[in-house]
Design brief:
Length: 143
């Protein structure tokens, strides 16, 4: 298979790799939004073995871990090897307004979806205002 070689694109990629190099887990991009009574977190994890994905909650901390292992190709001459392998990690502080007992996750087509329900006490609700019926029920404020 022939590949075109653009030296400027290759230099840009190498410089980007060097400038963003961080030892340890790699960054996973996510989208997070609220949809009614739940938060939806979508994390891009293409090429990850679903068995390596770990989602856990410890108190108010949601942690997502995953691992991508490279294919073992011994004795080959690499023409391009741009897909990064290794560990991925993201952590999120949940706060008090979520129901951490009912968090669910699924992995489909390289995207991890985590559904985080809003707790009952954090959902918006209407407070009924009652009108006083008698003079005794009416309160007066003196300053």
């Amino acid at each position: 298979m022939a590949m075109s070689f653009d030296p400027f694109s290759e230099l840009d990629r190498i410089a980007g790799d060097l400038l963003t190099f961080r030892p340890g887990p790699k960054f996973m991009p996510v989208d997070l939004y609220r949809d009614g009574d739940q938060y939806v977190l979508s994390a891009d994890l293409p090429g990850i073995d679903p068995g390596s994905v770990d989602v856990d909650v410890d108190g108010q901390l949601l942690t997502i871990r995953a691992k991508r292992t490279g294919a073992a190709h011994e004795g080959v001459k690499w023409l391009a090897q741009e897909r990064s392998n290794g560990d991925y990690l993201r952590q999120f502080s949940l706060g008090d307004g979520v129901d951490s007992e009912k968090i669910s996750a699924s992995y489909d087509n390289g995207v991890l979806s985590v559904i985080i329900p809003v707790s009952e006490r954090a959902k918006p609700r209407k407070i009924e205002v009652k009108a006083a019926q008698t003079a005794d029920e009416q309160k007066t404020l003196t300053v």
